[in-house]
Amino acid sequence: MKIERKYMAHYLNANFTNDEGTASYVRLGKDLEEYSPELSANVEKKSNILGETSVTIDSYQKQGEVSPYYAEKDDPLFTRLQAIIDGDLVLDDLKTDIVEVKLWGEESAGAYPAIKEECYIEVSSYGGDTTGYQIPFNVHYTGVKTKGTFDVSKKTFTPAG
User: Splitting the chain (161 residues) into consecutive groups of 10 residues, what average pLDDT does each group show?
Assistant: First the structure.
């Protein structure tokens, strides 16, 4: 049985690392037709004199593109993205986390299997056309992951173990 795309949920923490308080997760996808993190593997191929080829994949540079993203006045993610633009923020001011929630997984008291991963947000442009104010951005994953569960109704992540 095929799994519908809506069952792979991505929640971005709009309360970045340097902010006080708890995480404020916003689900990506309202205006997106697609969100597919690209893995961009580092691949090394070597051929020997016997005509054999060995392949080594030693790392991934995962990244996802959120485009379009339409700004909504009371959305905490919009507030953070606008702060990046207004303050020309760089380095750790762009650091947050994203949680991939497997809504097809076994539910336990409203929580589903999930993986939280540290990431950095890169605003690629802002403005847009007559359809509304847009702030497309890229999510750059670091590979620092934590397995756990995510409660969809409370929008909270709980680490495993």
Answer: 91 78 88 89 93 92 93 93 93 94 87 96 94 95 95 93 83
